[in-house]
UniProtKB/TrEMBL annotation:
Annotated family: Belongs to the chloroperoxidase family.
SUPFAM superfamilies: Cloroperoxidase (SSF47571)
Domain Heme haloperoxidase family profile residue range list: 96-337
Cofactor(s) it depends on: heme b
Keywords: Heme, Iron, Metal-binding, Oxidoreductase, Peroxidase, Signal
Signal sequence, start to end: 1-16
Protein source organism: Baudoinia panamericana (strain UAMH 10762)
Protein name: Heme haloperoxidase family profile domain-containing protein
Region annotation (Disordered) ranges: 37-57
C-alpha cells in the first residue's frame, strides 16, 4: 500500500511538471528517488512543540486584506510585481483593514518577526495560514522588498519547510498540515516555518537552538534580545549584528552538542540584515534604532532592564518604508559582507566533541572566501533553493522533484538575468 502510494506520487509529480524531465541537464533519476528516506523531513513529533497536536486551529480562516484603490501601497497583488517604489507610510492613515490586531489564541505565529507583524496587520491571513501570493504581495507592499527577493523568500519558505506546493499554502509557525495540505495522506506532514534545520536554524538572533530546548524554540527569548541589544548598543547595523552573529555561533557551539551551522544559515545573515535594511523608519531617518526594532520583535522592556515578549509584533506608528527595493543582489551582498566582518566555520558539532567543516558551493573548508566572485555571491540564494544541501547529522536535504520544479518555475527568469549557472542536476 505504501509502495503504491509512493509511485502514484511520483507519477503526479512527473505529470504536473512534465517539462522538467525534458530540460537540459535534468537528472531524470530524481523522479525515481523522490520521497525516498528523508530524515530531515519531520523533526517535530505529534506531541512536541511546533507539532500538529499543539498547533492552534482557527476555524474562521480569513484571507489577507488586499490592497484597494484608496490604499494601493506598492500595487502588489496576486503574486505579481508591484511598483517597487517605497518611501510611504504603512499602514496608511485611514486604512482600517491594515491596522494592528494582536493575535488571538487560535492564530499561528512563528519564528519570523517580519511575517508575524505582517499577519498582525492583516497583510497576511491573520490566522497564520498564508499563501505564496500573500507572501509575495505583503513583502512588497509593506517592506518594499524587491519582487525577485520576495519570490525567492516565498519559494524558500514553501520548499524548505514543506509548505504545500499544490495549494501553495504555508503555516508561518507550527504544523498545520490539515489546513495547508492538498491531501495529508499524500503529502505527509508539512511542519511550517517552525520546522527545524530547513529555514529555521541554530544560532538565531532571538530564538533558542532546537536541541537545547526540547525541540522548541521558535519563541522569542528576551535574554537573547537583551544580548543583541547590548552587543549592538541599540544600533542594529551591520557592524553590530555581525559581532552578535559571531557571538551566537560561539554560544551555540559551546552549549549545543547538536549544533549545526549549514548553508541554510546564510539565510540568518540575510534575516539579520533585515533589521537595518527593511525595518528602519523613514520618520527616524532610517536609523535601525531600538524603538523601531523592539516594536517589530514585540519586545517590551521590564523595570529591571530585562526584555519580555508582549505578543504585539507590530509596525511602529507613523512608519515609513524604504525607498529603493531590497532585492536579491543587495541582500546577498549584505550576507557576504556581514559574514566576512566576523567569519565563523560552517559545519557541525560531532559526537566526539570536534567540529566538522563542510564544503558546499562558495563554502569551502567551512569558510566563504573574501575573494568570492560577484556571480557566486548573487547566486547564493538560487543555490540554496535549487541544490542539495548538507544538513544536520550528515543527512542531505535533496529538493524533491516537485520542489525543484516549483522553485525553477518561480525563480529562473530573475536568476538567469544575474548570470547564475542554472543548476538542475544534483
Ligand atoms: C516569505 C518570506 C519570509 C519567510 C518564509 C521568512 C521565514 C523566516 C524564518 C523561517 C525565520 C527563522 C530563522 C531562524 O531563526 O532560524 C525567519 C527569521 C527572521 N525573519 Fe523572516 N521570513 C520572510 C520574510 C521576512 C521579512 C520580509 C522580514 C523583515 C521585514 C523578516 C525578518 C526576519 C528576522 C529579523 C528574522 C530573525 C529573527 C530572529 O532570529 O530572532 N523575514 N524568517
Ligand atoms: C521556548 O521559549 C519560551 C519563551 O522564551 C519559553 O516560555 C518556553 O518554555 C521555551 N520552550 C522550551 C521547550 O524551552
Ligand atoms: C533564553 O536564552 C538564554 C541564553 O541563551 C537561556 O539561558 C535561557 O534558557 C533561554 N530561556 C528560555 C525560556 O528558553
Amino acid at each position: 500500500m505504501k509502495q503504491a502510494l509512493l509511485s502514484s506520487l511520483v507519477i503526479t509529480g512527473a505529470v504536473a511538471y512534465p517539462w522538467v524531465a525534458e530540460m537540459p541537464g535534468v537528472d531524470s533519476s530524481l523522479f525515481k528517488e523522490r520521497r525516498a528516506a528523508r530524515p530531515w523531513r519531520r523533526q517535530q513529533t505529534g506531541e512536541g512543540a511546533g507539532g500538529p497536536d499543539t498547533c492552534p486551529f482557527n476555524p474562521d480562516h480569513v484571507p489577507a486584506a488586499g490592497i484597494t484603490d484608496d490604499y494601493p501601497y506598492n500595487g502588489a497583488q496576486n503574486g505579481l510585481p508591484g511598483l517597487g517604489i517605497g518611501g510611504y507610510q504603512v499602514p496608511a492613515d485611514g486604512d482600517d483593514a491594515h491596522q494592528f490586531v494582536a493575535p488571538g489564541p487560535n492564530d499561528i505565529r512563528g519564528p519570523c518577526p517580519g511575517l508575524n507583524a505582517a499577519a498582525n496587520h492583516n497583510f497576511l491571513a491573520h490566522d497564520g495560514i498564508t499563501t505564496f501570493n500573500e507572501l509575495v504581495d505583503a513583502q512588497q507592499n509593506i517592506y518594499n522588498v524587491g519582487y525577485d527577493l520576495a519570490v525567492t523568500l516565498a519559494v524558500l519558505g514553501l520548499t524548505t519547510t514543506d509548505g504545500d506546493l499544490v495549494t501553495e499554502k504555508l503555516s508561518i509557525g507550527c504544523d498545520a498540515t490539515s489546513r495547508t495540505s492538498v491531501s495529508p495522506l499524500l503529502t505527509g506532514s508539512e511542519p511550517g516555518l517552525d520546522g527545524h534545520n530547513k529555514f529555521e536554524s541554530d544560532s538565531s538572533l532571538t530564538r533558542d537552538d532546537f536541541f537545547t530546548h526540547d525541540g522548541d524554540n521558535f519563541s522569542f527569548n528576551g535574554t537573547l534580545f537583551g544580548m543583541m541589544d547590548d552587543t549592538c548598543q541599540s544600533n542594529f547595523n551591520r557592524e553590530g549584528l555581525s559581532v552578535y552573529r559571531n557571538q551566537r555561533w560561539h554560544q551555540s557551539q559551546a552549549e549545543n552538542p547538536n549544533f549545526y551551522f549549514g548553508p541554510l544559515t546564510l539565510l540568518l545573515y540575510g534575516a539579520a540584515s533585515f533589521l537595518y535594511e527593511l525595518m528602519p523608519n523613514g520618520n527616524h531617518n532610517y536609523a535601525p534604532d531600538l524603538e523601531t526594532i523592539s516594536s517589530f520583535f514585540g519586545a517590551a522592556q521590564n523595570d529591571d532592564g530585562s526584555w519580555s515578549f508582549n505578543n504585539e509584533e507590530r509596525i511602529p506608528d507613523y512608519w515609513v518604508n524604504r525607498v529603493i527595493p531590497y532585492d536579491n543582489t543587495l541582500v546577498t551582498l549584505e550576507i557576504v559582507a556581514m559574514y566576512l566582518e566576523n567569519p565563523v566555520l560552517f559545519g557541525g558539532n560531532t559526537a566526539d566533541g570536534s567540529f566538522d567543516t563542510l564544503n558546499w558551493g562558495a563554502i569551502q573548508d567551512g569558510k566563504i572566501s573574501a575573494d568570492i566572485s560577484a556571480t557566486d555571491t548573487s547566486c547564493l540564494l538560487y543555490q540554496l533553493a535549487t541544490q542539495s544541501i548538507p544538513s544536520y547529522a550528515n543527512s542531505v536535504v535533496e529538493p524533491t522533484v516537485d520542489a525543484l520544479a516549483f522553485a525553477l518555475s518561480k525563480l529562473n527568469p530573475s536568476f538567469e538575468n544575474l548570470g547564475c549557472p542554472i543548476a538542475l542536476t544534483k
